[in-house]
Amino acid sequence: MQPNPHAQLLAVVEPTVQFTANDGHSVARSEAFVRVRLDCGGFFTHPIRSTAFRDWFLNQFYGRYEFLLTSHQFHALLNFLEARARHYDESWQRLPVFRRVGATGPGRIPNKILLDLANPYREFVEISPTGWKTTSGPDVLFQTSRSTISLSEPVAAKEPLAPGPRPLAPGRPLASGQPPAPLDTLRSCLNLPSRSAWLRCLAWLLSALRPYGPFPFLIIQGPPSSGKSLAARLLRSLIDPCSAPFTPIPSSVRDLLTIARHNWILAFDHISTLSPQLTDALCRLSSGLGATVRETSGPVSEPLQQYLKRPVLLTVTDRWTCPADIAKRALIVTLPPLTAGPRPEESLLATLDKSWPAVLGALCSAVSAALSRMPTMNLPTGRSAGALAWAMAASPALGCTEEESRPQSPRAAQTMDRQRHRPPQPPATLRARPDAPQRLPAPQELHPDPGRPWYRIEIPPPAQQ
User: Fold this and answer.
1) 431-453: pLDDT as tens digits
2) What are the residue ranges spanned by the domains of the chain?
3) What is the SS3 assignment for 436?
4) What is the pLDDT of residues 81-131, one digit of tens each?
5) CATH pick for 150-160+182-419 out of 3.10.50.40, 2.170.130.30, 3.30.565.10, 3.40.50.300
């Protein structure tokens, strides 16, 4: 008896679960997905019409039956799986699907934040107000792309950071002896001019760990060979590593949306100018941009609506003039010239690679601190208020005060740096009283001209008491 080919197709997909997405922040709402359990115990999630699911199915089918099915048979199977995923009955499932960063719980302040490690075991970091842990399970669904690179499993720091300035100066090599704090190790690899610039980078990293946004831009500028590209690659790879850390600036809004659909963080390097259309699209993408997605070609296919929010990172050249709309949403960091010349990337990366899991663990601890303090915070107002409140709530875990963690403009940050390094004033008891007799000035102070004898200068009499 000839085996039924349809039964063979269904036998391969029988262990899978089909569902539709109900979250529009990371994927298209009502898009059909399939969840497959792996032999290692984890789960992967892919759209039914994706290349990743096609590769998995063809490999499983040939490994079981040792022959290839036709293209017509495979597309018939896809149509059936989509119909099963969207069949509205008591078994119909609508589940949230995230890309790299997710959340659980209602409201704008989630109960937990989830960071996808994208490793072969499909593990993720579950961050709660009481701490964080690495786990896996079928209830959390993350979507990846072919360019996604896995994150190292974070480890907890041995000692928490104490509030106040850190002793490690930016750009200096690490000293031998007692190891520095993980975030200080990251800071030592970046050519940052001041503590306020470092805190702006941290504020952007924390905002990129918020699943819903809005997200501020991070713009890194400076002279050539000042370490802009290296700093941007390190900051992007801390949260969303990718096979291509930078992508060329797209030529159209459609290309920009294609990049946003397959990446969590958008990073563009060596930008000199942006067209008005791309400027508007990037501004809308940081706060929320609608896009139309077609699963299949043809005029009769119904498009899916997708709502995208993405963190954006730019490195710019000397010819860059920041558009006003982006400047209102941006955290700007200006790197100084490297006086000792460019540092070898190999030595910097060798130092950072050893501390990479601890650096990620320190960021997870900061997010946990923010989750625990956000319900009692007095939320600020204005543009990027969510990112500002997030950084202020995480300040105890970052070793700074709430005022220092406020993302300042470069001019305001310079003022704070000058105030921080201002020499201490004497106590009020040692200052001169207003009613104390004034010291008579010396003749040279009244007329410092060396060509005129000082004894010809008339010295005023002392003031009457």
Assistant:
1) 444 454 444 444 444 444 444 44
2) 5-98, 150-160+182-419
3) coil
4) 888 887 755 555 677 888 999 998 876 788 999 999 999 888 999 999 999
5) 3.40.50.300
